[in-house]
Amino acid sequence: MTRMSPRRSVQDALLTKERIVDAGVALASSDGLGGVSIGSLADALAMSKAGVIGPFGSKSDLQGAVLARASAMFTEAVIMPAMAEPAGLPRLRKVINRWTSYLADCPFPNGCFITAVSCELDAHEGPLREQLVETVTRWRSFLRDQVVAGRKAGDIPKEVDPDDAVHTLVGLSMAANQEIQLLGDQGAARRARRLMLAAVRAGASG
C-alpha cells in the first residue's frame, strides 16, 4: 500500500479547505452568509457534511472564513494595485479607479459582497458581525489615512475633512452598487468615480 507523505497530506487538506471556502463564497454571494449551510456546501461539492465542517469546526467559523476570503478578494483587486503609488492623493486616485471598476465588473452576482453582507448582518449581534465591523473599520481607516496624507502633501485642500471625505466616498460606492445591481445603470460607476474624485478636490477625471 502506498502511504501518503505528511507533507502531501497537509497540502491536500489545505486545498480541500480552500475549495470549501471558494464554494462558500460563491454560495454566499447569491444567498447571503446565512445561506452558507453545511448541507448546501456538501451537496455542491459532493462531500459529506463531516468532510465540509471538519476543517473549520463550526458553521460560524466556516462563514467567517468565507467573509475573510471575500474581503481578501476586494483587497487584491482594489487596494494592492494601488500600493505602488505614493501615499495620499496618488494612491487614493488609484483606489477610486480600481474601486469603481470593481463595482462595475463585480465578481459577485449581488454586487459588492461587503455591502450586501452589511445589510444582512447590521441587526444581528455575534462574531460574524464583529468580524465585519473590523473589516469595514480597517477599510475606512485606510481611506482616511490617504486623505490625511494628501492634505499633508498639499495635494488635497486643508478644508477637506478626512472623516467627511470617507463618509462621502463610502456613500457614493453604496449608491453606485445599488444603481448598478438594482437599476441597471450603465453610467453609475463613471458617475461615482467623478463624484469621488470631486469629493477630495482631485479633479473630475479618472
From TrEMBL:
Keywords: DNA-binding, Transcription, Transcription regulation. Residues 37-56 bind DNA. Gene3D superfamilies: Homeodomain-like, Tetracycline Repressor, domain 2. GO terms for molecular function: DNA binding. Residues 14-74 form the HTH tetR-type domain. Pfam families: TetR_C_13. It comes from the Bacteria. The keyword Magnesium does not apply. This is TetR family transcriptional regulator. It comes from Herbihabitans rhizosphaerae.
